[in-house]
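Honest question from a wet-lab person: if I give you the sequences of every part of a complex, can you actually get the arrangement of the whole thing, not just the pieces? Trying it with mine:
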Amino acid sequence: MTDWLIQQSPAIQATVRVLVFVLPLLLLVPGLIWWERRLLSWMQDRIGPNRVGPFGLLQPIADGVKLFFKEDITPSTVDRAIYFVAPAVALFPAFAIGGTLPWGPHYGPLMHWTPIANVNIGILYVLAISSLGVYGVVLSGYASNNKYSLLGGLRSSAQLISYELAMGVSLACMVMATGSLKMTDMIAAQMEPLWGIQSLGWLQNWFLFTPFGLISAVVFLICMVAETNRTPFDLPEAENEIIAGYHTEYSSMKFAVFFMGEYATMFVFSGVFATVFLGGWNLLPINWDVVAAQVPALAGIARAMDGLTYWLAPIWFLGKCATGITFYIWLRATLPRLRYDQLMSLGWKSLLPLAVANFIVVAIWIMGTKLYGPGGGWAGGLLGLAIVYALYLNFVSATRKSGWGAKDRLAMVDKSARTIDLVDPNVAGGTR
Amino acid sequence: MGDYIAIVILVGLAAVICGAMVSLSFVLGPKNTTPYKQSPYECGVQPLGDARERFPIKFYLVAMLFILFDIEVVFLWSWLTVFKNADLAYQTFSFGAVMVYMVLWIIGDAYVIRVNAIDWDETTSLHPAKLGEPDPAALPVTARDLELVGGAR
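Yes, you can. This is the full assembly:
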């Protein structure tokens, strides 16, 4: 297969790589919807869809076919062109984000299959395409000419751009730790010895295991959930406040396209998380070839594991993506929705300063490693962490006190209106 | 440049899929329009006026802040890729320069938060705890409070 692929012209090679990525993604989306409905049901002590096909697996496909043949209602007051284009714009990034995502090893016989394009802008491409999703949401909200849609679209766009910042900075930390924007290089950097200590060569340096990487991973994870409009950040579709938000006016397949986009984006973002923080397609954080060289007794097993990790790489990668999706569903079953002001203050006052503080720590870490080796990196990093954390606490306490305009506004508050309404249990009738 | 062929193909395919999805239901579905079906949804009542109204300035402010901070991050990306593998002299110099840059960035962020640009509405920014005074509900009840309540009656 690989020999055949190499002999083709670059355009055909590229087409094959694109199809190998996009077709499974298209087929996986109904599976994801089924998994969400089923798992959510189990978590809520229900059974969930189990009628159509084995275990109800064909339920989303049946729903899809039904939706295709439903009436496509276009309200008379909408802005027609934008109303039509908006769902397509919302779905587009879901398929386009994966352009630089390696789902398997980029060396040896498998290297011609993945990623679709190993361009040197790598992760920047992911950020650029993912922010296009805002257009679909805000355009559909605006074009619908419905008050709920407009509110949902505005909320969503404000939310997406707020979390985009923290996400960009947390990825920037990892780019700095790698020294390259290519996603294949990021995986290669995670296969180096843990923390740069050569005697730990049998352990891989997954960024999740480094102190700064852990902080980045947490920030990225929260931003990733917010970027895909999922619970607890699903304010744009808060059904008890604004009906269905930006897709209130959509029906038939156009309505379903928003959901397809949401699920596909969730999946690809899980893939990005796995690539940047969890060592990509590696099964375990262990360099099996180093184990084979150092411990002769385990050489056979280690070589077998090495082959298994290499040849079944797409399965391990899919497994990590599936874990990410399961995490999303778990969040949905567990956490209540945030209030809007809490959402904005979490993004701007907690995540963004944390990501920036982490950025500074990574810079100190790299300087320390360069000057004094891995130990210097740890010392510099931890010292930096302590200093930056102290500054961060100061920053938080400084910004939580009354703002500069507070006194003027205080004067506007009618103090007498703020007396306490006392309830005396001894007096019948309650209020004294 | 050869690598970007794949990106172009992917983008083209994604656009075709999206376009097909959106237009297929328009072609396949039945069309029975009635005036009620075509009116904007407003919980079953007749819609009041147009939806394209003025909206809170906060949304505009957030968008503007996003552009400012995002451009500041964009400036860093080119430096990020070269920092780790550069020689020590450049590394030390650029480390100092970027730290100065980040300090300015943090001052900007602190300013934005201090002037309550992110605080979403008046009820939260006028909460007693945020104004630096004790929450009246948490205070012990005094004789004066009782008097006030009595006086209000």
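Two things worth pointing out. DSSP finds 16 helices and no strands in chain A. The two ends of chain A are 86 Å apart (CA to CA).
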